[in-house]
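ok trying this again, last paste got cut off
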Amino acid sequence: MEQDYTSVDEFLLDAQLAEGTTLELPFWLASILSEEDMVGITLPRAYTSRIQHALAASSDAVNLRNLGGGGGAFFAGGNRLLQLTDPPGLTDALHNAFKERLVQVMDQMFFQGEAAAKAMKAWSEVKNTKAPGR
């Protein structure tokens, strides 16, 4: 039977685990237990050295949505993870990938903004030529 814990204390009272046991815990619980030095944190699959190497090779080739990180959640999750642990290379991988992707996003925004401004100008000119009494 699966237990639904509403507090860390309930979990700890019920948890009788042998040392070295590996569990997948929600981040909020793992972070609390880690801060109390009750558990060690291992990197989730989305932040392993394999993903770090892929980001270093070509950050835009890695589909972050598949890693649970659409809309910036990948970088936010990585930042929260770095507050608990300092895995080798993760800081640089996240920082460099964010910088590369930010440049791409800003370029896309510029070009879309420019296209929207041209479309607005064309619409305004058509509207002004059709206006009654002009």
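PB: full thing came through this time. The chain has a mean pLDDT of 81.
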